[in-house]
Amino acid sequence: MAISRRQARWLLLGPAGLWYAALLVLPLALVLVYSFGERGAVGGYQPAFTLAQYANLGSRWTAFQNTLILAPAGTIAALLIAYPLAYYLALRVGAQWRTLLIVLVIVPFWTSILIRSYAWIFLLGGRGIPQLLSSMGLGDFRLINTPFAVLVGIVYGYLPLMFFPIYVSLEKLDRRLLEAAGDLGAPPWRSFLQVTLPLSLPGVATGSMLVFILLMGEYLIPQMLGGGKVFFVGNALVDLFLQSRNWAFGSAMAVTLVAVMLLVVTLYMRFLRRIGAARDDVGLM
């Protein structure tokens, strides 16, 4: 019996759709329902319909503030480091060295993020970089358990996720466009701004969104390098669900975080459309 195109589409999308509904839509719906409830007498969840949990979000404003400041800052810092590195490897390094250098970028992923965070605890602790700076007469510095330590940790941990989308965009760049720009008298900086950068923006956007979305829910790095003094929404959620057992308030915070992410994704989609228009303009030059 022949299968129509529509039936074939449903057969292909059905398993993935069921998986998506079971592991994403239903848990989010459950969290949304919990967010309108109340904390039980011994913790957990008590059915109700109230907006009190959302009205109480201000009590955890510090967690939102740290997340909304350090997540974009970490994304921008990773971008500023990853883009020159990707540009150099994609357009300036010969093929015989490129593979080796890319492997060196991947090497940190071969080690657990937990071990890497412990390494940064030592480097930023009293016997690490601060002691070295003090021995050089540069004064006493406290680096561990500060926003700077958390920023260093998230940039180090998420740099490869920013690097590879940008590298792929630059590696696929048609070198003839750069040659044409040079033949038309454009200096290198102008060729970069008008040709290389616009054509690599999809990779920049992809890497930035990957890093930013993951940082919004980050828990381990702030917990270890922040020492309980610099905590994200993820740390607050762990406290509310596992320690305070205030599932209703924790659900309200989670729903708010998801709403922020939906807003970011919406802006991201608009940004992609502008990128497409910019690429078309470059193609018409």
Describe this structure in words.
This protein starts with a helix and ends with a helix. The protein has a domain of 175 residues: MetI-like (MetI-like fold, Orthogonal Bundle). The longest helix has 37 residues. With 285 residues, the chain is mainly alpha-helical. Helix content is 75%, strand content 0%. Helix 11 packs antiparallel against helix 12. It has 12 helices and no strands. The mean pLDDT is 86. Keywords: Cell membrane, Membrane, Transmembrane, Transmembrane helix, Transport. It is a multi-pass membrane protein. InterPro entries: MetI-like (IPR000515), MetI-like_sf (IPR035906). This is ABC transporter permease. It holds the Pfam family BPD_transp_1.
The largest sheet is:
none
Helical residue percent band: over 70%
Q: What would you call the structural class?
A: mainly alpha
Looking at the overall shape, the CATH architecture of the domain at 61-235 is Orthogonal Bundle
Q: Tell me the span between the first and last alpha carbons.
A: 52 Å
**Averaging pLDDT over every residue, what do you get?**
86
**SSE topology string:** HHHHHHHHHHHH
State which percent range the strand residues make up. Answer: under 5%
Class of the domain at 61-235, according to the CATH hierarchy?
Mainly Alpha
CATH homologous superfamily assignment of the domain at 61-235 = MetI-like
Shape label: globular
Briefly note the CATH topology name of the domain at 61-235: MetI-like fold
Compute the number of strand runs: 0
The whole-angstrom Rg is 24 Å
Low-confidence stretches: none
Number of helices: 12
